[in-house]
Amino acid sequence: MNVEDFPLPPKIEEKEQKIKTEFLVKSLPLVLFSASSDETRPALSGINFLTNEELVIVATDGFRLSLVKTKKEKQLPSVIVPADFLREINHFIKDEKEVHFSYSEKEKVIRFKMGESEFYSRLIEGEFPPFDKVIPQEKKTTVKLEREEFLRKVKLISVFARDFSYIIVLEIDKNGVRFMPKTTEGEENTSFQEAEVEGEDQRVAFNYKFLLDLLNAVGGKNIIIEILRSDAPVVFKLENNQDFLHIIMPVRIQE
Question: Pick from 133, 167, 196: which residue ends a domain?
Fold first, then answer.
């Protein structure tokens, strides 16, 4: 196509700001997997950047939520940036110390600048859901699991869970966690992992794909699970990262 026919990016007159590449490189992978791919709900297909006392980036698809917070250095805009755009940005920023960005309130456009390259995206217009309301303020059970073994157990049981609506059940008692598909008899097709458990016994079920996405995205040795009850949002935390929070809505199953 003729260069004259190609649209020029809009002019952004707002002041350019900086954000540390290290924060984006570490934080974006922790939230991007939770963004929705459903285009009928645009706000959920983006990453919400907002600042209050601290900078928070959060993503949700309605069934799970990922949140990372950090101390804010400057007053950043509260915007919803398309997740696909940020996935592309994440490939290009690793060799940069700082990322320069600016956004236009009028044009609803954000620009990231790295060296001689500039990347533009339309911002997503709409209201991001009030995610604070789904974060549980109470817990009755806390479980600390070794992450690598947790991942292996979920992969193992997922082979059998595919025939049962992709649902994996976690039975938690003082000794640890037993993993099983939704329907099983006896000890067949189950697996056990020792864990540090505080509080009540619990039985909670998940779509195993959500667990795999989480465990593949995060690092660290141990993962902490906080459960209120089997039908309430379940919180996942990292022992080595106090600024990360993940929530998965459990699946209701007949007892």
Answer: 133
